[in-house]
Design brief:
320 residues; alpha+beta; seven-stranded mixed β-sheet; five-stranded mixed β-sheet; 14 strands; 18% helix; globular; disordered N terminus; binds ligand MTE
């Protein structure tokens, strides 16, 4: 039996988040006017050496679990086993090949059917939002999973501010195109830039999160700095990284993996143990760092109570 405790989306930031975290580290440093304040406030810290960087993990994460009582994956797992094809196709490539990537300054272009289009500085996007720690399972289509303490805010907060019109039926996201800093964009492993999309009601759902950090620290380059998407009930590839464009469109956008292989990948990509990938079953998953598929995959990645109504009446075998 699964005993549900509080949903991650129900936990208010003030319950678990000190100001340096919910303001966002960059903003907190800016607001405090001195860079050392963050470390001083976080008290005793454990240090993880990852790809030559030292990361301070606030001690409050030590006893946190997911809403299903699962342990969090380590900072090392989360930042050294990645999919970010712009930096290579091996899981270790993104942490090894992304150190030259510059996530600052960063501008996001908001386009399409909205009353307030424009080029927004990331700091201006973040200024009015309340940042939260949100612990979600990430279930990759390759049948591995992790439990990750993301740091971010609901995409809906941003969408409401830019005021979509009634023609905005879908949201289309685009990753930055910088072949000089992202070596695999010089290859044809995928069509570039990476594109993803959501239906507008999926985008407005409170679980859909724009992420700026992990484990209370800034998002490392390999995880999609400085801004990426997390849609916890969908396969991990919907979580587009290093977003520079958010466009409100009338037609369903074609996402990168569907463009690359429409036989294997669809638009919706809801986690569904009953619908196999054409080359493997999706019924079970390997919780990293384990090598074995010891976990049953849950419908909608365990978030069915929150999201199943979005798909009422749809044949989920057909709408992959
Ligand atoms: N975003 C971009 N731009 N490029 C990518 O290759 N990979 C996706 C997604 N976002 C990808 C991307 C896939 S397949 C997964 S499983 C997740 O990122 C992995 O996120 P993580 O490396 O932070 O765990």
């Amino acid at each position: 039996m699964i005993i549900r405790s509080k949903k991650a989306s129900d936990i208010s930031s003030s319950e678990i988040t000190p100001p340096e975290i919910y303001l966002g580290r960059r903003r907190f440093i800016r607001d405090a006017g001195l860079g050392l304040a963050t470390l001083a406030l976080s008290g005793t810290t454990s240090t993880n050496e990852v790809a030559g960087q030292s990361q301070e993990i606030p001690p409050r994460f030590r006893n946190l679990k997911s809403e299903l009582g699962e342990d969090l994956n380590s900072y090392r797992d989360i930042t050294t086993y990645n999919n970010f094809y712009e930096f290579g196709t091996d899981k270790r490539d993104p942490s090894r090949n992304s150190s030259e990537f510059e996530p600052q300054p960063w501008t996001v272009s908001i386009e399409g059917h909205v009353n307030k289009p424009g080029n927004y500085e990331l700091d201006d996007i973040l200024a009015p939002v309340t940042m939260e720690d949100r612990i979600y399972r990430l279930r990759c289509v390759e049948a591995w999973s992790m439990v990750i303490p993301w740091h971010g805010f609901p995409l809906a907060d941003l969408i409401k501010r830019v005021e979509p019109t009634s023609n905005a039926k879908f949201v289309r996201f685009e990753t930055v195109h910088r072949p000089e800093q992202m070596p695999y964009q010089k290859t044809g492993v995928l069509p570039w830039p990476y594109v993803e999309g959501l239906r507008i009601d999926e985008a407005m759902h409170p679980l859909t999160t724009l992420v700026t950090g992990v484990y209370g620290t800034e998002l490392p380059n390999q995880n999609g700095a400085p801004l990426r998407l997390i849609v916890p009930w969908k396969y991990g590839f919907k979580g587009i990284k290093s977003i520079v464009k958010i466009e409100f469109v009338e037609e369903m956008p074609t996402n990168t993996w569907k463009m690359a292989n429409s036989f294997e990948y669809g638009f919706y990509s809801n986690v569904n143990p009953e619908v196999s990938h054409p080359r493997w079953s999706q019924a079970r998953e390997r919780r990293l760092p384990s090598l074995f598929k010891s976990h049953e995959t849950l419908m909608f990645n365990g978030y069915g109570e929150e999201v199943s109504q979005l798909y009422a009446g749809m044949d989920l075998h057909r709408w992959k």
